[in-house]
Amino acid sequence: MFIATLIAADRLEAGQVSAAIERLTQAGCAPTASAWIDEGKAADLLFGQMPDAARAALEGVFPRVDVAVQSIMSRPKALLIADMDSTMITIECIDELADYAGIKPQIAAVTEAAMRGELDFAAALDARVALLKGLDEAMIDRCLAERVAIMPGAVALVRTMRARGAATILVSGGFTRFAEPVAAQIGFDQVIANRLGIEAGRLDGTVARPIVDSGTKEATLLAAIDAKCLSPEATLAVGDGANDLAMIRRAGLGVAYHAKPVVAAAADVRIDHNDLSALLYVQGIPRRDWIDR
Predict the structure, then answer these.
(1) Which of 44, 66, 83, 240 is the catalytic position?
(2) Beta strand 65-71 pairing with 79-82
(3) Mind spelling out the 3-state secondary structure of the chain?
(4) What does the pLDDT read at residue 293?
(5) Is the pTM of this model over 0.90?
(6) Is residue 66 annotated as part of the catalytic site, yes or no?
(7) Burial of 149 (0-12, 13-18, 19+ CB in 10 A)
(8) What is the mean pLDDT of each run of 10 residues along the chain (293 residues)?
(9) Residue 234 CB: number of other CB atoms within 10 A?
């Protein structure tokens, strides 16, 4: 059996649920039942076959409604692995650091191209960090205090999954000086990120090796599966950029969160309208069971 979950950014109407059932019937998916997770917000539709047809029938049909289609047997997840910049936080940290150096447009353009998959990630990171050489180290803490905001839904997602026994890992192509406090604030078990070179209180324009990149993210996922003796189907990976593609493809449920087109096309689930708490609804967890503090 399979399950399609409809999650509304605004309000989900009973008529939309009925229309979704009709679309599944027309697509040959053999729907059998429906139920609210939270009335007016999220609903589940059970069906018997053709999950790809179900996605095609439902995705993008209802305004400001995200759709997740998956096997009902692998719905609860025992591992969350997540990107940081523009996923668990609302900004790209390197772009904001560049703003303090007065070169944000120059660096942000490279960041955008790298996240679309148009540039090699490691080379693009090296080039951007080199441009920050000489920036006062104090600007890192200033940026953290003034610019970094936790993505809505992140705390509820991570803390609720941990309370249910899941492992949670933040793995970022960004920097430890941001990732470590962000991970602590949200509640992750583990954090992996790049280390900026600093000498005499200023950025020296380098990143320590090995660089945390797409391969690192994939390897972290696979290592956690082995270490915790998990089924790959019990894992969830979420990110927004091209360097998240490998882990998204290897996870049991790969999620593109407000993502670049190349990532959205490859993911099992696209969250385009809701915040990260949608991934709790994807697992069938109602609002009353969330832990967000």
Answers:
(1) 83
(2) unpaired
(3) CEEEEEEECCCCCHHHHHHHHHHHHHCCCCEEEEEEEECCCEEEEEECCCHHHHHHHHCCCCCCEEEEEEEHHHCCCCEEEECCCCCCECCCHHHHHHHHCCCHHHHHHHHHHHHCCCCCHHHHHHHHHHHCCCCECHHHHHHHHHCCCECCCHHHHHHHHHHCCCEEEEEEEEEHHHHHHHHHHHCCCEEEEECEEEECCEEEEEECCCCCCHHHHHHHHHHHHHHCCCCHHHEEEEECCHHHHHHHHHCCEEEEECCCHHHHHHCCEEECCCCCCHHHHHCCCCHHHCCCC
(4) 84
(5) yes
(6) no
(7) exposed
(8) 98 98 98 98 98 97 98 96 98 97 96 95 96 98 98 98 98 98 98 98 98 98 98 97 97 97 96 98 98 90
(9) 18
For residue 120, the model assigns a pLDDT of 94
Examine the residue annotation and report whether 85 is marked as an active-site residue of this protein: yes
Asked if 37 and 68 touch (Cβ cutoff 8 Å), the reply is: no
Question: Which one of 44, 66, 85, 95 is the catalytic residue?
Answer: 85
Residues whose CB is less than 8 angstroms from the CB of residue 87 and which lie 6 or more positions away in sequence, other chains included: 151, 238, 239, 240, 244, 257, 276
Bridging pattern class, strands 235-239 and 202-207? unpaired
